[in-house]
Structures are given as C-alpha cells and as structure tokens.
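As a warm-up, study this chain.
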Amino acid sequence: EIIWKRKSGVASRSNKGNSHDTIFYYGKTQNSKYIPIFLDYSEDYIKKQFKKDKEGRLYRTHDIVASPSLGGNSPRYEYKGFIPKTRWLVKKEKLVELDRKGLIGWTKNGFPYRILYLDELTGQPLCDVWTDINNAAGKEKVFFVGQKPEALIERILKISTVPKDLILDFQLGTGTTCAVAHKMNRRYIGIEQMDYGQISAEERLKRVIEGDDSGISKKVKWQGGGEFIYCELKKYNEEALDKIQEAKDTKSLLKIWDEMVKYYFLNYDVEIDQFNKNKDNFEKLSLQNQKKLL
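Now compare it with the structure written out below.
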C-alpha cells in the first residue's frame, strides 16, 4: 500500500480534509519486479545534515563502529591503535580502503567515524508515503476528473518496469499512462470506452509525438517522435441487437443467428453446436421468446 499526498488538506466543517489517494502495489507472485529508486535530499535536509570541507564539498559523518544496541557479527579488531568496545561495521579490508580514500575521520578523543560526501550518495530511498508529487497543473492539466500527474505515473513505471516493457491501461481516460510510457520508451496498450474529444488519449498522443513539452518532458529530455496505432471496435453486437428487434419471423431470426456465429463476438459460454442441434425446439418458441433467447 502506497499513500500519495496529492494536495494540502481541504478545510471542511463536516469531515476531515481529503488530501491523499491510496495506491495498491501488488504482483502475480512474491517475485514480482520491483526496482528501487532514490530521491534527491531536500534543501532543508542538506542544510541541517551536511557541512563543507576545505574544498567546499558537502559531507556528513556516519558511524563506523556499532552502537551497543546494534546486533551483528562483524569482527572486533585493532586499527591504528583503536579497538572498539563493540565491533566495527565493516571488515578490516574495507576500513583500510575507506581510510586510503580519505573517508575515515577521527574525533579529538580518538574515536573513528565515516565521511559521506553528498555527491557520492544515491539519495533517499523511496518509501511508501509520497509527498513530493502534486496534482496535475499548468500545461498538463486538462480539467478531467481523476486525471493523474505524469510525475506520479513516471514513478510507478520506474519502480515496476524497464524500457520496452508492455504497459496496459484499461481505463485510459485522457491518456496519461500511455503518454508517460511513450516518453519513457515503454510499449503500451490503452483501452477506453468514452470519447473525450480534444482531450482524448488519441489527441494527446499526437501531441506527444509532435514533441509535447508538458509533464515529465523536460525531466526525461523528450523531443518527440515515435508512433502508435489507434483502433476502434466495430459495433457488430449492437447491429445484431437492432436486427433481432426488427425481425418479423423465425426465418429471419435464424438467418441472424447464422450471421452472429460467423461475424459477431459471442459470449464465451455460448454452445453453438448445441443450439444448432436444437433448432426445432427454438422454432416452437414464440417470436418474443426467440428474440429473448438470441
């Protein structure tokens, strides 16, 4: 379960302000793909936790000796005359390497610590509470209820897919998922029942191909290009219903049945052979019941 804070709380006299959505992250098996990502440290965190060395590089210190409450079985050995009361957090070979690189410091009291430079850190590991992504705004906003920001979809795809993976969105809406997948070099299939005109997924993907500069475009250096295939399902079944209602006799209905078997999308549990074997019983029904059956 992931909590996404999409906006600041909304004041309400009747209930708590609703400011977050819940995202369920699940897979077919326990071995489902998850790709760890790291976020940049906030300016406030850097200001509080890091200092500048003589060359102006930002760094912070970290334990290299275990605290008494920390378990583990790393060795307890002597280094430069110092033997910890607990244990070292790294093996001696690693400690020597860190010291050689200037990444081990010593307090005035002769206690060792590790030096971590900001420009060498991967960042803050992503957790299950996301507060750094706001609702869609600016050029990206199309005033569609439920529209998600491209940055949110980008993060979801980052932790669960790699380039060329296939993404399925069966509630396509205005096409945010497919737009982001296109910009991130993922394959995609989008399905939508409604037609949203100028804010439809089809029109949006055309703009993406032309080099749309909204959403994550700047971040991923999107320049445009690519292609997509757009298809519409023909209204076979609706045409069949109209024909059934207009039929005047059994002969017409049986002709429609033959057309349905040959051309239309029938429900998976329709037993075609069984129906054909029992046409005599079908013909004995009233015209109204025949239409209901079809």
